Amino acid sequence: MLSGNTDCYQPAEQKYELTRRILQLCWKYRHPVSIITKNALILRDLDILKDLARHNLVHVAISVTTLDREVHQVLEPRTATPARRLETIRTLTEAGVPVMVMMAPIIPAINDREILSLARAVARHGAQYFQHMVVRLNGDLPEIFEDWLDTWFPDRKQKVLAGIKSLHAGHLGSHVFRKRMKGEGDLAHLYAQQAALARRKFDMDRPLPILNTEIHAGYKTGQMDLFQAMDLGR
Q1: Would you give the distance in Å from CA 158 to the centre of its chain?
Q2: Which terminus of the chain has a lower count of CB atoms within 10 Å, N or C?
């Protein structure tokens, strides 16, 4: 998995090409890989992704937070515009690369009104699955986020914070497994209903295919058995 914690196509990737070299290794050894990104720079590596996709060795998840250009500029500056992300989804899909879209994070009173319209747009550009995640503010993030609200959305600051708290049992953040990403309570349930409706309505309830592990270079030599044998109970 590339980008489990941070985007593997940040601006520095243009110079260092670390992600491209990782993908080259994945292709060389037929190693399956999943990628999460919000940046169109992924298209630079379309040649490798197409090779991987032909053997069912890659999934791509594109993060799309908003279709509103003004919201995008203050929420995710220096990242691909909404229009560019839609074109990235289309290009990957047309190249045979399976693409899902994550609307993440959903922020109450800022982008939560866009769930259905955003889902419709990504479906039209070829996404085959759609999921969502809600905002959570752990650690020092509340102070940073509140300062951001003071700068860009002072008129709705309290509404935004109240909405976030309603998602996390009265707190701005959450570490609770299975609840931290989707939230809980009435508002979380509403978001989940809208996402489910979007999947049905726009034919995006098609889970990505299971990645192929049987042609990995180490599969026939016993390399994979090492992982299967790692039982902590032994």
Answers
A1: 27
A2: C
Instruction: Give the three-state DSSP class for 58.
Output: strand
Name the β-bridge partners of 59.
34
Question: Are the C-beta atoms of residues 158 and 172 closer than 8 Å to each other?
Answer: no
Please give the full DSSP string across 154-214, using - where no structure is assigned: GGGHHHHHHHHHHHTTTSS----TTTTTT--SHHHHHHHHHHHHHHHHTT-B-PPPPPP-T
Task: Please say whether the beta carbons of 139 and 173 come within 8 A.
Answer: yes
How does residue 201 score in pLDDT terms, banded at 50, 70 and 90? very high
pLDDT tens digits for range 19-55: 999 999 999 999 999 999 999 999 999 999 999 999 9
> Where are the chain's structural domains?
13-206
How far apart are the C-alpha atoms of 70 and 85, rounded to whole Å? 15
Residue-wise pLDDT for 96-154, tens only, equals 999 999 999 999 999 999 999 999 999 999 999 999 999 999 999 999 999 999 999 99
- Our measurement of the distance from residue 52's CA atom to the centroid of its chain's CA atoms, rounded to an integer in Å, reads 20
Q: Are 107 and 114 in contact (CB under 8 A)?
A: no
Q: What pLDDT sits at residue 46?
A: 98
Q: Is 56 left (phi over 0), alpha (psi -120 to 50) or beta?
A: left
> Confidence band (pLDDT; 50, 70, 90) for 4?
confident
